[in-house]
Queue: 4 jobs
Job 1
Amino acid sequence: MNVIVVGSGIAGLTAALHAHESGHAVTLVTKGALGDGSTGFAQGGVAGVYGVGDSAQQHAQDTLDAGAGLSDPAAVSMLVADGSARIAELIARGVAFDRSPDGRLLLGREAAHSHARIVHAGGDATGAAISRALTAAVRETGITVVDGAFLVDLVVVGGVACGIRMLVDGTHSELRAAGIILATGGAGHLYAHTTNPVGTTGDGITAAVRAGAAVADLEFVQFHPTILDAPPAFLISEAVRGEGATLIDADGHRFMFDVHPDGELAPRDVVSRAIARQAAAQGSPVRLDATMLGAATLASRFPTIDRVTRERGFDWAHDPIPVTPAAHYLMGGIVTDLDGRTSIPGLFAVGEVARTGVHGANRLASNSLLEGAVFGARAAAALSMPASAPLPAPTSREDDPLPGRATTSPFSRPALQQLMWDHVGLLRTDDGLTHALDVIRSWRANGPAPRDVADHEDANLLLLAEETVSAALRRTESVGAHFREPALIGV
């Protein structure tokens, strides 16, 4: 069949390769250049290689524990069951994961993992190595690639997805196919501070929302704890803490053990909130101390971080560096079954755009690249297969947002991002969420029709912001990455 894959990170590239190798005619559509997106920026690695005393079952348990009880056990089991095969496939496609002198894969450990089970490449350049290998493989196959193509909307006829509308060089066009796989990534640019590259504006999720696809868990936004506190945003991999680096306050005190028994290797939501609170209390950034690792180890194990921190004027081998949290990963998205099928026949979703159920309320470190590879392959295999279980029902939505209380503040993308950071970020309150929803609905109600890519991105961010805030208001309890501050009684 004819298949369209939208997105060229690990999930989209894997899906495109597997679909092509299964005999489908594949067109890969990507917003930027082939291989652009978040995958190439991933510093950590891929979880799923088990050493002595470790197992897939233990990896599954760690994933479930990190997900705060909201992960789907069947999806988690599928992830760890397929993980070894997908890592072996990456190696076969040319990803040179780091090895010891005797040839064994080097395994790292990150927060909330009970064992070292994460493979990495180039020290801290795993995503770049994967992206290079998979884009080279796609080019070798002769898969049709349309780059510079912005996804405007899905084409749905008779309740079945059968194509996409896109904007290329200012011109609108349409592609038709029997199978559509969305792999468009997340929406980090909802927030004023993010690790995500430019262009992660929720285009796939919002196209699916407009088409009526079921979405879920949009309130679960993961904030990475350690971003270098010196713009522009640059991620300091969790693997640095896995190797022994510590978080210290203004007095040099290692404060994370005051918050959680796992210290710096507590779940990401716990570490991020602790850093934000400590920084606010002391009026200055928290610092990451990696000096005990030594200059040689830092340069060899984390060459990219070592280079960039030095370019920014920091000598992290001798002095702790300032860090702060930033929006990093969306655990929610388009609801899928275990093969990537959505509630709209003919439409699949894989990678960060999808809500597979793996991550629950909080993603376990280094499960994202694994999820993209596992479910990208599964979706491609399922293109010609009927669903084995009922799919979620499509969602009916009004075309226009509900009116919010009028606001005199003009819309701009930075204004939206700051609103989301202030009220829908690490620490949330009922009043803050309600205020944010009012402002967002007012902006949506008064916004002009999109004309160019930037306009479409703004419209997508506004729609996704409304969906995210609404989901956060519905979930009144605190769980995982969604943390509600208690109301102040009598104040």
Job 2
Amino acid sequence: MVSVEEALQIIAKNTPILQSVALPLTQTKGMVMAQDVLAPIDLPPFDQSAMDGYAINIHHEKKYTIIGEVAAGDGKEVRLKVGEAVRIFTGAMIPKTANAVVMQEKVTRLGDSIVLMDEAVTGSNIRPCGEQITKGVLALPKGTELTPPAIGFLAGMGIREVNVFDKPRVGIVITGNELVEGGEALKPGQIYEGNSKMLLAAVKGYGIETCTTYQVADNFMATCEVLTKAFLENDVVLVNGGISVGDHDYVYKALKALDVEPLFYKVRQKPGKPLFFGKRGNKIVFALPGNPAAALTCFYLYVYPAFQKIMGQLGSGLERRKLMITTSVTNTFGRALLLKARVLQNGEVEILEGQSSAMLHTYSLANALVYVPESVSEIHKGGVVEVLVFPN
């Protein structure tokens, strides 16, 4: 059995990074760049007007003669003599002899001339060529997450395709004789299967589209067959249930029979103690507890950072904050506690009712977990605790 910190270190050490793929920029949101990108052009590629107004060639008077107009997209070359101006619009190319742009609200127009309200300042309201970045300079380094502004920045330089770390294919294996699909009538001893929907939503919430679910009865040979198929078709396998040591729990035995290397089994935490992590070749597998709240806690704490690393990110997991707690907490279990909680608008955190590993009702209202280390036996009201904030 390992500690929470040891489990996280083992996962980080043994999670591979996937191969890179070249994708159209429009398909890369949330992915991570697999190589440096240098600017192919200056940005902006020409001196550009920062606003609607008048481009002028400054002279000692406030009156200027208008000789034309330049709109965004115009490629014509206009040369201004001293004391001349052109009507210009935001994003338009500045005439080479212009040395300032005066916003339209700061002039009085009199037919074919304008009169400035204030003295003109050289370089005002002009975005110089290469102001944002110059050709050949590092635009974004390897490891950058492609957020909407990053995608917009690259697209603005004419880049249409980038190399990114691929997203993993994920398989979710659900075990249990007692499980039936919603819509069917429940027979004695049966329950509706919801964990696959929960885990599928959690996986896809991280932007991973290729996710397949499998269901298997509590049978050793059937479990081996389904796991073999899941390993063949996926990069990451999540098994839910059947990982304990009961007479009808076959997952651990099946993983051993399939030559999965066990990297740890069981973590000193509550909930989620019967967690397994291992690898088979370049594939990794998490066997999560069957109880839904325990399974989701293990997903957030362990699977989430593994997804981050496998896609080329740092793999630091959930955002961690130090917040003041609204109630006291006692830990008599000798294990780390992961308590369903809610971060309040005032910046404090409250522990929610219903901490059972089988209960999702309270989890539905939670937006965080309070982490109590195994070495801490008591936290008083008003104390500062470590809070793991859920994504989104």
Job 3
Amino acid sequence: MSKRQLLLLSSSNYHGHEYLQFAKDWITDFLNKNNVKKVLFIPFASTKPNSFDEYTAKVAAPFNQFGFDVEGIHKFPDPVEAVNNAQAIFIGGGNTFLLLKSLYDKRLIDPIRSRVENGMPYIGSSAGTNVSTVSINTTNDMPICLPPTFYALQLIGFNINPHYLDPIEGDKHRGETRAERINEFHHINSTNVLGLREGSALLVDDDKATLIGFTSARLFRQNQEPEEFSPNSDMSFLLS
């Protein structure tokens, strides 16, 4: 049986680094381990008109430097066929609602899920990480459009909150903190939520999950106090 292979980044950017450069070793090791030479990029989270070529070129620049070719799915007449023939997929950041709606509109949910379940490597960043989870209910994005459902690819059995932010001591803002919003989610949902700070990622290899990167993560569980996990922590219990 093929092993599930996921690299789920909180963000494509990290302070002090150029685009995706902080994750160079993670991406390179992940793709080389899976014998990947070419990556299919899905740019549908972009909200800029006619920007898919530009977004794909932005992604291709670091990937080419790392030694991998990149193709944009929008260049294929049949996106389902493109997914079915892909060596690996990368879905980048942008608006999560628009991304999920596009995946449903183009009938890509089931093909992507099937390919990943059969061992195709998947890299997500920000919105691309959001749609890899159970649902997009814990995204930070504005709902600029309405997908058919908030249920997502369900490649893992919990949610992730990318770009997780801690309250800033002394801040005069009186809106809800990120933790308070996740707590609101848990008033009526039991799905675990991993608050993934920028500079970190979750690496999934079959039934093993590891927190990697430069920052810790915070796990929220219904009716429990949040728990902090440091880099290199074994998070495999979340997959069960």
Job 4
Amino acid sequence: MQVGIEIGTGPGGAPALVDLEELLATRLLVQGNSGSGKSHLLRRLLEQSAPHVQQAIVDPEGDFVTLADRFGHVVVDAERSGSDLQRIAARMRQHRVSVVLNLEGLDAEQQMHAAAAFLGGMFESERDHWYPMLVVVDEAQLFAPAAAGEVSDEARKASLGAMTNLMCRGRKRGLAGVIATQRLAKLAKNVAAEASNFLMGRTFLDIDMARAADLLGMDRRQAETFRDLARGHFVALGPALSKRPVPVTIGRVETSARSSSPRLMPLPEQPVEAARDLIFAPGEPEPLRPTPARRPTPAPPATVDVLAQLARHRPAPAAEAPPEMPQQERDAAIDAVMADVLADPDAAFRSIAVLYQDFIVRCRMRRLGEALDLAAFRRRLAVARAGVGAERAAEPEWERAAAVAAGLAEELQGVFLLLARAAQEGAPCPSDDDIARACGSRSPGRARRLVAYMESRGILVCRTDFRGNRVIALTELGWETAPGDPARAAPPPDAPPDLFAAE
């Protein structure tokens, strides 16, 4: 599903949109000197995308903790052990809670260790929890430095490895890296090179301008324009932004950072002699000014309390509750949403987590709320991939097939229902391509392995007739398919559907 979020205005005052689904697949790099508006840009992106996708922010200065009050992010203080941060990160992915990792108060080496543990916990989470999410890392040059600095090699390697995993291997795990840096020259090249979308702000050093121009496909003369960009003005390029470099002015934000840019204050008015006396005259000892009492820094909450908060977290209720809907009408609406999700030609080959995220967003748009949990979605997806319509699903014979499928492993249910439908209709045995599609794969080899595994478990019996066609019998149902060529190619996307067609 395509979701366009507006980050500001482009040429001619037209809205500058970011394709959120494309951004999740292609990642983003933001570059600009201090004061160019990078943090403002990240805040605008986070605010606009918060209703659509889970977020994790690695915040070295504590600027983004203000998102918690407005958008419900959970703030995680990083002053805890690495194992605690890994556990919190895994629990965050499980419960799909947006989180701000606050690194404020830690020194550079401690920040690198904490960020490495947190990113590693997200990266190593269980496959069932690989939901799409934005992972925003501000001041990325601190965590993926191009050269060794004053920190230990152990901290640098751990942090750099976690950032490399995020940008190079995170996409298959649903992690979309959004990294911001003051200087491209200080950022590790293998981390920066994995981004396909770029927002380049004001920069002055020749080496940074040359790298920015090279990433945007601009010549050296055009690179000089980066010096003239105003605060909050960027040049955008990438599949989620624009096919050619375009200027973008970032829009306003709803929340504000705790820190702000320094502002001028008027000097105290006093005669020169009085100022001289204040500095040089011995005079009487000045009374000691009382030192303002510093409020003690509160201890970070216990890890157990943070984990409990993640488990209890629920999205903020809508301003207006959706109207009550009859169950029959609600089921029909859910079926329609499922059909919309599977209408995409690539839906058969996407992971369960990605399809479920798409399904939940579409349900919210139709005011259906959290229509199905993940387990129920898996079962309904298996039925939908087998092409079973509502009328057939209510037949007593098909209820037998559904009951048998419910006792199988989740990855086998869709294959079993596909074979059951073919056997009940007396249709030819599905090909390896058809079976692979039913389990969300493009590999005929995986289909053959699944069939062999199910046969070894006594779920089905497979035989070949004298023409080389395959016949599959389902043992518990007593149904048998007609002979079918296992090597038959799947129909092209524009061809009429066969077994996958909904009735």
